[in-house]
Amino acid sequence: MGRRNERLRWQLASGLLKVFHLEQLTNRYSRRTVMAGFSLINGTLSIALVSFIALVTQEAFIFPSLGATAFILFHVPLAEPASPRNTFCGHLIGALMGLFSLHIFGLQDQASAFLHGVDLPRVGASALSLGLTGCLMVLFRVVHPPAGATALIVSLGLMPDPAQLPVLMAGVCLLLAHAYCMNRLSGIPYPVWSATKSTPSTGAVSSP
């Protein structure tokens, strides 16, 4: 499984080098160096794209858990957690459970934990949001580990307004669109929505 993922990452990196007529780099540098450079470029471009749109619109398109998502989308693109279905649904569940937990503990209008500090209601909200997110992702078979961070971002008060949810999910969609284009350009059959059953699921908890 690990070797297969490494071959896929190499195919992704070398495929893009061919697209941009930079194949000579594979002869000059080691495979690890090329793949590290590929991660550097794609991670930078993907987050820069989302951040630039956030800058132009002054909306919260960018949030911390997208960094972990970007790494998964380009490091193990055919793994089940990297599929658009898991990525989109996972973040949606995380955000909704974060909002739900804020409501349960009466924290909708409170300052974030980073400004007000952590009290018992905030402890309850963060714990409940993460627990519910993990539970629902497993039940619905849409495991995407970075979504746990999204649940905490919301329940800790960084994005407490339900009106921010469409913007948050738009940021996820922008990242997925970039991943689709880059993976397909390199010849990787990145799925339109759901990973195939034969796809490796490294990083995910297999479900019966």
From TrEMBL:
Transmembrane region(s): 34-55, 61-79, 86-105, 125-143
Keyword Transmembrane: yes
Superkingdom in the source lineage: Bacteria
Any one Pfam family match given in the protein's UniProt record, by short name: TM_HPP
Domain HPP transmembrane region: 36-191
Keywords, comma-separated and alphabetical: Membrane, Transmembrane, Transmembrane helix
The protein, known as: CBS domain protein
